[in-house]
Amino acid sequence: MASLPVGTRVVVRQDPDFGPGPWPAEPTGTISSEPYEVSGQSGPLVGYWVRFDDPQMDADGDGPYLRSQVLEQYLEVDDR
After folding, report:
1. Cβ atoms of residues 23 and 68 within 8 Å
2. Is the peptide bond before 55 cis (omega within 30 degrees of 0)?
3. What does the radius of gyration of the chain's CA atoms come to, in whole angstroms?
4. Which end of the chain has fewer CB atoms surrounding its CB within 10 Å, N or C?
5. Most distant pair of Cα atoms in the chain: their distance
6. What is the spatial distance between Cα 72 and Cα 55, in angstroms, rounded to a whole number?
7. What is the C-alpha to C-alpha distance for residues 17 and 30, in angstroms, rounded to an integer?
8. In this structure, how many other beta carbons lie within 10 angstroms of the beta carbon of residue 62?
9. Residue (of 32, 13, 9) closest to 24 by Cα position
10. Residues 46-58 pLDDT 10s
11. Domain ranges for the chain
12. How many H-runs (helices) and E-runs (strands) does the chain carry?
């Protein structure tokens, strides 16, 4: 995936290996930061801050959250 500019509308997809998490409702939101690098088990990953359209509860029932750090692999451009 190419870098997502600030202001891009996205859907946060569930992690198929982590049950319904971390965001089970698969919320929509807006990229609110430039990409940043995160250390992962298999090497560097890319993350973004996402501002949710509606407050969200995470898979543990914590929240509501207005925004969160989300790895790029769980983001899909919302072209609706």
Report:
1. yes
2. no
3. 12
4. C
5. 34
6. 20
7. 24
8. 9
9. 13
10. 999 999 999 999 9
11. 1-13+31-80
12. 0, 6
